[in-house]
Design a protein that fits this description.
The complex is a heterodimer of chains A (about 550) and B (about 325).
Chain A: H1 10-37, H2 44-50, H3 52-85, E1 86-87, H4 91-94, H5 97-103, H6 106-117, H7 122-129, H8 140-165, H9 168-176, H10 181-210, H11 213-218, H12 225-234, H13 241-268, E2 282-283, H14 286-313, E3 316-319, E4 322-328, H15 331-339, H16 342-371, H17 377-385, H18 392-402, H19 414-438, H20 442-450, H21 455-483, H22 487-492, H23 500-509, H24 513-537
Parallel strand pairs in A: 1-2
Antiparallel strand pairs in A: 3-4
Helix pairs in contact in A: 1-13, 1-17, 1-18, 2-13, 3-8, 3-10, 6-14, 8-10, 9-10, 10-13, 12-13, 13-18, 14-24, 15-24, 16-17, 16-19, 16-21, 16-23, 18-19, 19-21, 20-21, 21-24, 23-24
Chain B: H1 2-19, E1 24-27, H2 31-45, E2 50-53, H3 56-65, E3 74-78, H4 80-83, E4 90-91, E5 113-125, H5 138-141, E6 150-153, H6 159-171, H7 174-183, E7 184-187, H8 192-198, E8 204-208, H9 209-218, E9 223-226, E10 232-242, H10 249-259, H11 261-271, E11 274-275, E12 296-297, H12 301-306, H13 308-317
Helix pairs in contact in B: 2-10, 2-11
The chains are: A mainly alpha (about 550), B alpha/beta (about 325).
């Protein structure tokens, strides 16, 4: 960096970005780590060794994450394969899957599963009639089933593109060299798509570690890390800042280890497909077609069930916690819009502000990192990726502990909710922005500057318009994931600042399914409307950067 | 970017400022109860109230954290043994409405105001009895046939759970108590108890009358409430004034309204909260028995609060059903 560099705005913006990241990302994280060592009484790590319940929570969480990752992969990869390579009846529904994962609140999913497979559930009662008893849905059975049927979609999304792009000529070459079709697929295709599968499987692993909503509803006797952190943070009689910080640190360390592994694995096993031509999907007919569309149909139908449940529940009469299925009403919806519209307004306001801040920040910062590197930018790059290792619960605990008082008291404000949103979702915008900027040649920018346009104006007039489609898709993905955020905001929200997911969580917790469904349905709409408008009116390709 | 951040902070500040004038109630109560109370407060005192909900531990600790600059005005409601530890952030208030409350429910200096009375009951799902007769008393639930079929809120993080287990340990002989505990499944969330029984996950749950009755009232015919024949116990829930409440006198008015006859009738009708006042006849409004017809044991809440740590340690060591260890 020479002297003249300081005449451009970039070093200053870098310093500002680093300062913001330092205060809002590094400081809470360090606060947690420090508190785990020096808190009230003994170091949290020593306490932990003596605490069998916490140790079992860690063991259970790792086991659950492993099993769910395995099942998700076993469902997601075959589904991705058939949908990338074949055409069959009802295939259109599979393309809806990515949206489903984005729109259905996890609490609703857990509740729906209980209504189907719980002790009094539809299927359970049916099987009981035939003398078949299935295990209680609370605990391992329920956790594994419901999480696998949510998270396989991430494996599907992560793998389907890789399979689609796989050059079929390679497979044909292998076959013409005498390898059987099935073998050629395993030996030629698998190595190429393996990084994509591994990356999405590891993503699922980290998501299970951080999962709060399903863990707390279905966990019961199975102690899990995120629930233990939440309880250490909020439960009465257990105000243990040290323990909460220690457990949070463990969660962070596990996820960091996984992310590190992810980098290593993917860096090692990358195969480049040069000018590949993707295989054209083959039609499937006859028995094979029925079998594939039947199997895929079942998987998709199961994933869609929660949506159907809330759509019906939202218009069903209820008295207190008791649903009167078959009797219809508009009262629940009237509640969302007229009697108690607070959560709807809050959600739109907070998620809207957070999306704007998050996208603006990540666009600018990824520009700095990719195009204007200086001494600070590698650091910015690292620090801005840290939130990926923080589950919502950990982030919530960190923010709550660090900004409770002191130099920046944010507890009980709307700012802390927006802040939690921005920190949680900003890394996605960063990844997206950097991917796009790598594809924009420097020469265009240099041409503009050499023609006399100042650097910042060049950024606004030349670079930004080229980034715009990607920024738009990042904005929409940020919006959808922010509106549905629960675990961090649940810890930092204060009264009157409930968002839709928080309200749904509270209502389901009180057993008021009808109201919860109404808010759930509105949440789905709030998420979907911008997606639909963007993809149909503005032709934004949502998964452009994937 | 900077401008944006500044605007956000400003917006957030404005939002916080606009709400400051109305009393803010930190409440552990479910949505229908809160709405009924809000309506009465609006009606009687002309006050719009802000609501913050959460578990009693969360909320009390938040009040403690906000000691320097209180954000809430009223806490509503929890048991005396939970609130006792937070006396230094609360303020005594002798509401005129307390004259209608029996003296034995009131606490010294009126640090907290008795808001309603909970009766510990057994919620039974008759569909899950598999032909067996419904339990009539605690000792029936101590039968090994009930192992893993009774759910109870975790005493370690729910005041309901603590009240229940403490009471049972005093009410039952050591052997029955141990056998009953061995049958229990502990739930980390107290709301999972009535839900678990209503959904048929468990045949029975030990919970407050109010929670079970919402299902009976809703028309779920397989749910019944058992008042154990050898006796059960009650526990009052209290409201309290936050020390340095920003709404000042309006906070006191909100408590008065909360304790008023209208409010307690409304809460009885909507949320099935048994009133703390003596001037309300329960059976006029809901199909719940009068308190005088239930056999009640007196439990010492002060002692319960004092021996909490020792009791929980003892509790943790007792074998239970469905525990992962």
């Amino acid at each position: 960096m020479n002297h003249s560099a300081f005449r451009t705005p970039w070093p200053w913006l870098s310093a500002l970005a680093l300062a913001l990241l330092g205060v809002f990302v590094l400081y809470p994280l360090l606060y947690i780590f420090t508190a785990s060592f020096v808190g009230e009484g003994r170091s949290g790590w020593l306490q932990l060794l003596a605490d069998r319940q916490s140790l079992s929570a860690i063991g259970n969480t790792l086991l659950l994450a492993t099993v769910v990752t395995l099942f998700s992969t076993l469902i997601g990869v075959p589904l991705a394969y058939v949908s990338a390579r074949y055409r069959f009846r009802g295939k259109l529904f599979i393309t809806l899957l990515p949206l489903i994962t984005l729109v259905i609140p996890e609490v609703v999913t857990a509740q729906t599963w209980l209504m189907i497979l719980g002790n009094n559930g539809v299927i359970t009662r049916f099987l009981k009639g035939y003398g078949i008893f299935i295990p209680s849905f609370y605990g391992w059975f329920g956790l594994i089933t419901s999480m696998s049927f949510i998270y396989y979609t991430y494996v599907y999304i992560g793998t389907v593109a890789a399979i689609g792009k796989f050059d079929a000529q390679l497979e044909e070459a292998a076959q013409s060299l005498g390898t059987a079709p099935a073998r050629s697929r395993i030996h030629v295709m698998l190595p190429v798509i393996r990084p994509a599968i591994l990356a999405s499987a590891l993503l699922v692993f980290t998501m299970v570690i951080g999962n709060f909503a399903i863990s707390t509803i279905l966990g019961h006797n199975v102690r899990l890390l995120s629930v233990a952190i939440y309880q250490a943070a909020v439960a009465e009689g257990a105000s243990n800042l040290t323990m909460q910080s220690t457990l949070a640190s463990i969660s962070v360390l596990i996820v960091m280890a996984v992310l590190f592994l992810n980098r290593r694995v993917i860096a090692r096993g990358r195969y480049e497909i040069v000018q590949g031509r993707g295989a054209r999907p083959q039609p499937l007919r006859g028995a094979q077609g029925v079998l594939v569309s039947g199997a895929a149909g079942i998987v998709v139908a199961i994933s869609l069930l929660p949506l159907v449940t809330i759509a019906v529940g939202a218009f069903t009469v209820s008295r207190g916690p008791v649903m009167r299925w078959g009797e219809w009403t508009l009262d629940n919806m009237a509640r969302v819009f007229i009697t108690a519209p607070g959560p709807l307004v809050n959600s739109i306001l907070y998620a809207g502000i957070a999306t704007v801040i998050s996208v603006a920040f990540s666009t600018l910062v990824s520009y700095l990192v990719v195009k204007k590197p200086n001494l600070m930018t590698p650091l910015i790059d690292y620090v801005s990726a840290i939130p990926l290792a923080l589950s919502g619960t950990v982030l919530g605990v960190g923010l709550l502990a660090s900004f409770n008082g002191g130099f920046l008291a944010l507890t009980g404000t709307s700012t802390i909710i927006v802040l939690a949103y921005v920190i949680r979702r900003m890394p996605f915008g960063m990844r997206n922005g950097q991917a796009i900027l790598h594809n924009i040649p420097n020469s265009i920018e240099e041409a503009s500057i050499s023609l006399g346009s100042p650097p910042f104006r060049t950024f606004l007039r030349v670079v930004l318009p080229m980034m715009l489609p990607a920024v738009a898709s990042a904005a929409i993905l940020t919006w959808t994931t922010t509106v549905s955020e629960l675990s961090a905001s649940l810890l930092v929200y204060s009264g009157g600042r409930e968002t839709l997911p928080i309200q749904i969580f509270r209502l389901i917790d009180s057993g008021l399914m009808a109201y919860a469904s109404a808010y759930g349905l509105v949440l789905v709409a709030v998420i979907l409307v911008p997606v639909v408008v963007a993809t149909t009116l503005f032709k934004v390709d949502l998964f452009a950067s994937k | 970017m900077k401008k944006l951040a500044a605007t956000t902070l400003l917006l957030a500040g404005l939002a916080a400022g606009a709400e400051a004038a109305d009393p803010v109630i930190y409440t552990t109560n479910p949505v229908p109860a809160v709405e009924a109370a809000q309506a009465v407060i609006k009606d009687k005192a002309g006050l719009t109230t802000g609501i913050i909900t959460g578990g009693s531990g969360v909320l009390l600790r938040r009040i403690e954290a906000e000691k320097a600059a209180p954000q809430g005005d009223v806490f509503w409601s929890s048991s005396a043994n939970t609130m006792g530890a937070f006396k230094d952030v609360l303020e005594p208030y002798s509401s005129p409405e307390l004259s209608a409350v029996p003296a034995d429910l009131r606490v010294a200096d009126d640090y907290f105001q008795p808001a309603n009375l909970h009766v510990v009951t057994v919620m039974v799902n008759t569909d899950q009895l598999d032909g067996a007769p419904a339990p009539a008393d605690w000792k029936d639930l101590a039968d090994p046939a009930w192992k893993g079929r009774i759910i109870l809120p975790d005493p370690a993080n729910s005041s309901t759970g603590y009240t229940i287990v403490w009471g049972l340990s005093k009410l039952l002989d050591a052997e029955t108590y141990k056998a009953l505990v061995a049958n229990l499944v502990v739930s980390s969330s107290s709301s999972a108890v009535p839900k678990g029984v209503a959904m048929g996950e468990y045949a029975a749950g030990i919970t407050f009358e109010t929670n079970s009755y919402s299902y009976v009232d809703g028309g779920q015919t397989e749910i019944s409430i058992v008042y154990p024949s050898s006796g059960t116990f009650t526990t009052p829930e209290y409201s309290a004034l936050v020390k340095g409440a920003p709404a000042g006198d309006d906070a006191r008015k909100a408590i008065d309204a909360l304790l008023s006859k209208d409010s307690q009738i409304e809460l009885l009708k909507v949320a099935f909260r048994r009133p703390s006042r003596t001037d309300i006849k329960v059976s006029d409004y809901v199909k719940l028995p009068e308190l005088s017809s239930i056999k009640i044991f007196k439990i010492d809440e002060d002692e319960a609060a004092k021996s909490r740590d020792a009791f929980l340690a003892e509790w943790a060591a007792l074998p239970k059903a469905g525990s992962s260890e």
